[in-house]
From TrEMBL:
Alphabetical UniProt keywords: Methyltransferase, Transferase
Protein name as catalogued: Methyltransferase domain-containing protein
Annotated region described as Disordered, given as residue ranges: 1-22
Gene3D superfamilies: Vaccinia Virus protein VP39
Position of the signal peptide: none
InterPro entries named among the record's database cross-references: Methyltransf_12, SAM-dependent_MTases_sf
Species name: Aliiruegeria lutimaris
Length: 400
């Protein structure tokens, strides 16, 4: 058995207990359905017509459970195909789906390299997998070959700078523990790690904590058998190499270097150079999340808030609560990738935020507040720039 396959057979990752499904739903990017709609289907996907989904390298089931539960809640029919090489991970994913009483998932133990054998899919999730393949580009290509003509995909791969210190340690630990059983290798590597100097880049990297949580986390982060990070440029080249276009990096505002640059320099950068500059200057990005589709759909993929029939949804915060914070301070705080962010919004936008309930369209919110479309459009554009930019606002026809 291949080394990486063995690793996930012995140590499914991330570690999940199906009993926890009773108390929480793990949500995140990619594959939060409102985010999928926003970035791939113009915010107006016809979810009632049904959605065929491939979860490629589904592991212990986070992306799978998130999509199945949210689509079920919304009454949106779906068929999900789960593929993973690890039997043990599949059993955990199956138990999580069963614990929630969810239907419509077919489980297969197979490689995503065979994705096309399972059909063509409207949406493909591949989170944290491609960077572990012996030939990652073959994985990008295999996913493209299973994508329907009007479909899109959400990907996550590791990024180098936010994982500073990881790769020299993987090299060292793998060499020094060669031939040992995983438990012994973990024990030896933990002892070595404890003796490394405080100034070691890994010890200075506050963002990396998985190795503290569990043996599976330690193995995945510091003793991985095959793990290559991608810069944002390399990721986009890999997507394009598969014949697709990258339509969004998540959250989009994280890839804007303008806050760090003199205006004249910022304005001269092309889109890709700008994103790469943002990654290099931030230094904190540890994963890249991208949405991709066929080039002929790229222009139509992203929701445009000038279309007042769109329905806005907030992520992780309720409209009235956000409205209260903005009315009081004109700011909200969030942390992302080790950065503390203060997002400023005009106080007069608070009543619009209070109107977001996952059902009201932009025109209904404008009408409710008695605003003419012109004044509304200008104020909403500012809300959209900040909140959609940082992944807190999506447009979707899904009803929560
Ligand atoms: C880090 S886990 C990520 C799991 C899941 N996508 C998530 O985000 O929680 C990587 C998974 O990829 C699976 N994997 C690795 N190579 C694969 C391949 N060629 N085909 C399918 N699955 C693969 C592993 O078995 C493992 O479950």
């Amino acid at each position: 058995m291949d080394k990486v396959q063995r690793q996930y057979e012995d140590f499914p990752y991330p570690e999940r207990d199906p009993a926890d499904e009773k108390r929480r739903l793990v949500v995140g990017s990619p594959s939060y359905p409102f985010e999928i709609d926003h970035h791939l289907f113009g915010g107006k996907r016809d979810w009632k017509a049904g959605t065929s989904i491939l979860v490629a390298g589904g592991g212990t089931g986070d992306g799978l459970v998130q999509m199945a539960q949210i689509l079920t809640n919304a009454g949106a029919p779906y068929e999900i195909t789960y593929l993973d090489l690890s039997e043990k991970s599949r059993k955990i994913a199956e138990a999580r789906i069963a614990a929630r009483g969810l239907k419509g998932v077919r489980f297969h133990t197979d490689s995503l390299l065979n994705a096309a054998d399972y059909g063509k899919f409207d949406y493909i999730d591949c989170c944290g997998v491609l960077h572990h393949l012996p030939e990652p580009q073959a994985g990008f290509n295999a996913l493209a070959s299973a994508l329907a003509p009007k479909g899109g995909m959400g990907l996550m791969v590791y990024a180098p700078h936010g994982r500073s210190g990881v790769y020299p340690l993987q090299d060292a630990f793998n060499a020094l523990t060669d031939g040992m059983a995983p438990e012994e290798a973990i024990a030896v590597a933990r002892k070595i790690l404890a003796k490394l100097p405080e100034g070691h880049p890994f010890k200075c990297n506050q963002q990396l904590v998985d190795h503290e949580a569990s043996d599976a986390g330690f193995l995945d982060l510091l003793l991985h058998g095959r793990d290559r990070p991608y810069t944002v440029t390399q990721l986009q080249e890999a997507i394009e190499g598969a014949g697709l276009s990258c339509v969004a990096m998540i959250p989009p505002a994280q890839y804007d270097p303008a806050p760090f640059l003199p205006k004249d320099i910022a304005s001269e950068l092309g889109p890709r150079a700008a994103m790469q500059a943002a990654e290099n200057l931030r230094g904190t990005i540890k994963v890249h999340i991208a949405y991709a589709t066929w080039p002929d759909r790229a222009a139509a993929a992203l929701a445009r808030p000038k279309d007042l029939s769109l329905v806005p949804h907030l992520k992780g915060v309720a409209g009235p609560a956000l409205a209260k914070a903005i009315a009081a301070k004109g700011q909200v705080s969030m942390t992302l990738g080790g950065e503390s962010l203060r997002l400023s919004l005009p106080k007069k936008a608070a009543p619009l935020l209070a109107g977001i309930d996952g059902r009201a369209s932009l025109s209904a919110i404008a009408k409710l507040r008695g605003m003419d479309p012109f004044a509304f459009g200008a104020l909403w554009a500012e809300l959209d720039r900040v909140l959609a930019g940082w992944g807190l606002l999506h447009y979707s026809s899904l009803v929560p």
